[in-house]
Design a protein that fits this description.
By secondary structure, the protein is an alpha/beta fold. It has two domains: 154 residues, Chitobiase, domain 2 (2-Layer Sandwich); 330 residues, TIM Barrel (Alpha-Beta Barrel). 30% of the residues lie in helices and 16% in strands. It contains 15 helices and 19 strands. It has an eight-stranded parallel β-sheet. A seven-stranded mixed β-sheet has the order 1-9-6-7-5-3-4, covered by helices on one side. Strand 15, helix 8 and strand 16 form a beta-alpha-beta unit. The relative contact order is 0.11. It binds ligand TNX. Ligand TNX binds next to loops. One of its GO terms (cellular component) is membrane. It holds the Pfam family Glyco_hydro_20. Its EC number is 3.2.1.52. It catalyses: Hydrolysis of terminal non-reducing N-acetyl-D-hexosamine residues in N-acetyl-beta-D-hexosaminides.
């Protein structure tokens, strides 16, 4: 383009993008090769007038595109349209785009993203970002053409819940590390972040009514091998919730009980049946701890924690764990859950539990999270038959802490090795007997931290498998195709490199 002073093909570092080169695969794509759009130094970002959300998303887009283009990209209200631009408009999107989808039109004269909600606009912005050449992720000016392939995308999710879980208990991860992960999750249209805030090795959230819990249960020397200390203050947590919400990600906090409670029981003696505090633990055993089911103080404690956690959590869900309670009898487990589930409702939240919670016939609005490794679970199937929605996290497909293969330096292997193709090749809507598409709330990718300390460690396990799970959660089944996915995934490699995101160079992918 004349105005840019750049030759049309300046610095073609990466191949031209196709309109369908997006993860997760969009629902509907109609390319129009004659309608490519080119960003120029005069491009404006025009946002829905009088919409704070659209303006904020416009600034987010501008911040994303400025470093590599060096263009000013002013964010202005979408009124007059005489300069080429990117328009972010609320309303008038195809009805099937629903509450999270969007419609993206690329023509020579401009790019228009329309959505019924800000969340949809934000999703459309992520698509636009991926449609630009990978160099757009550079933190310094790249002299090259910035072309967006022409045509129309109409896109919307298959499942309403697309999640990632981070275990802060086995090793604490700092707010900055969590935010960096959130930034990556948002690009793949993940909309929930589940924080595993307590376990045997650590307690990671400030609770005012039990003031020693976090400073002692999450202090120096806690975590696996005593090397994972730290906790979130209420201010940290609130700031994280806000940061995630600005990226249309809802935080789902988890306090694991009645097992996985050694950290709390090592700080407060009264949480043990014999009134004696247990020693802190830094090993990776599971299934040995249990709250004292017959003691009233247990329920005072649980209610205090749920009340304080619910008060700082704007999202609708609160996860109460419930897994691997091997030190609790079945009868005690039912007694406990039948007292604690109502407490979650009392404070206005909808309970999540690991799939063991299905054993107690919880109300239909309680969500069992399936983490088994087989395709059969009678309790979960019965819950689905009673109307429960199930969250799918089968450990042999969706666990990001499983090793890729025998040589992976990090991770565990109790659920098997999970290469990127294994993470991709299953159908959440047809995986578990008796749990069909209509019973599935969505897909979540848990990342347990027994072996993970740094952000580099987290990223190495999450990428490239997280995008595979994100695609299973968002894209219609009809788009499912390993050949297409593996090519689109390969193109994410240079983007991760430019963003300094660590990833596993899976031999299954032809990285450029
Ligand atoms: C099982 S999955 C656990 C966690 C471990 C994880 C390690 C689940 C509900 N419980 O306590 O961290 O395996 O992969």
């Amino acid at each position: 383009m004349l105005l840019t002073g750049l030759p049309a093909t300046a610095g073609p570092v990466t191949a031209a993008r196709q309109l369908s080169d997006v993860i997760p695969a969009p629902a509907e794509v109609k390319a129009n090769p004659k309608a490519d759009f080119r960003l120029t130094p005069f491009t404006q970002i025009r946002t829905q007038p009088h919409s704070k959300d659209a303006t904020r998303i416009g600034h987010y887009l501008a911040r994303t595109l400025r470093p590599a283009t060096g263009y000013p990209l002013p964010v202005v209200p979408a009124r007059r349209q005489h300069l080429p631009g990117i328009s972010l408009l609320l309303g008038k999107a195809a009805p099937r785009t629903g509450t999270e989808g969007y419609q993206l039109d690329v023509a020579r004269s401009g790019v228009t993203i329309r959505a019924n909600t800000p969340a949809g606009l934000f999703a459309g912005v992520q698509t636009l970002r991926q449609l630009l050449p990978a160099d757009i992720e550079a933190d310094r000016v790249q002299r090259r053409a910035w072309t967006v392939p022409g045509g129309r995308i109409v896109d919307y999710p298959r499942f309403g819940y697309r999640g990632a879980m981070l275990d802060l208990a086995r090793h604490f991860h700092t707010p900055d590390e969590i935010k960096a992960y959130v930034d990556e999750l948002a690009q793949y249209k993940i909309n929930h972040l589940h924080l595993h805030l307590s376990d045997d090795q650590g307690w990671r959230i400030q609770i005012d009514s039990w003031p020693r819990l976090a400073p002692e249960g999450g202090g120096p020397g806690t975590g696996v091998d005593g090397e994972g200390g730290g906790y979130l203050t209420k201010a940290d947590y609130t700031d994280l919730v806000r940061y995630a919400a600005e990226r249309y990600i809802t935080v789902v906090p988890e306090i694991d009980m009645p097992g996985h409670t050694n950290a709390a029981q090592s700080v407060y003696a009264e949480l043990n049946c014999d009134g004696v505090a247990v020693p802190p633990r830094t090993d990776i055993e599971v299934g040995y701890s249990s709250l004292c089911i017959d003691s009233e103080i247990t329920y005072t404690f649980v209610e205090d924690v749920i009340r304080e956690l619910a008060a700082m959590t704007p999202g609708p869900y609160l996860h109460i764990g419930g897994d691997e309670a091997h030190a609790t009898t079945d009868e005690d487990y039912a007694t406990f859950m039948n007292r604690v589930l109502p407490l979650v409702y009392k404070y206005g939240k909808r309970p999540f539990g690991w799939n063991e919670v299905a054993k107690v016939d919880p109300p239909a609005s309680t969500v069992p999270q399936y983490w088994g490794t087989t395709t059969q679970n009678a309790d979960v199937a019965e819950a689905a038959a009673r109307g429960s929605k199930i969250l799918m996290s089968p450990a042999n497909k969706a666990y990001l802490d499983m090793k890729y293969d025998a040589n992976t330096p990090l991770g565990l292997q109790w659920a098997g090795f999970i290469e990127v193709r294994d993470a991709y090749e299953w159908d959440p809507g047809n995986h578990l007997d008796g749990v069909g598409e209509e019973s599935v709330l969505g897909v979540e990718a848990p990342l347990w931290s027994e072996t993970l300390r740094t952000l580099d460690d987290i990223e190495f396990m999450a990428f490239p498998r997280l995008p595979a799970l994100a695609e299973l959660g968002w894209s219609p089944r009809a788009t499912h195709d390993w050949g297409s996915f593996s090519q689109r995934l390969a193109e994410q490699g240079p983007r991760w490199q430019l963003r300094e995101v660590n990833f596993y160079r899976s031999p299954q992918i032809a990285w450029p």
